[in-house]
């Protein structure tokens, strides 16, 4: 008897509601990761070609069933409008440091920013954009922070490798801007 792998995978992704690692899906259906990935990719194509309201997205080495973005307007008419989280410049700056330097400690972030960032990190954890990854094996055993899958979803990237790379000229320009701002603040 041939199993209906697509139906099984669909049930797994729908029921879990969050992303599920490819390795876990393949173990559940007793197929190799390559075979499982091929089935999922075929499912993604089926969902796109049939003009369905859902899709499957890949996040790092995991998959998640989601509503297509073009359906949001209809969902909002029925459901409560989701609370929009506004990321201030401080939160964005802290988040970008974590994204590019992870795993990173609070002290390392504060050294780069030059100010305390405890509140910013707490807010980013509350928004599920950042999480604690463990502790650094150093005196005081400081917490290490990194980005979450929610970060990937919110910023529309499939992996951290898709983050833009800054060239050395841009970095120097940013440093000069920051130095000018610091000088203006010192003059006031």
Automatic annotation (TrEMBL):
Protein name: Segregation and condensation protein B
Gene name tied to this protein: scpB
A Pfam family assignment: SMC_ScpB
HAMAP family: ScpB
GO CC, one annotated term: cytoplasm
SUPFAM superfamilies: Winged helix' DNA-binding domain
Subcellular location: Cytoplasm
Gene3D superfamilies noted in UniProt: Winged helix-like DNA-binding domain superfamily/Winged helix DNA-binding domain (1.10.10.10)
Protein family: Belongs to the ScpB family.
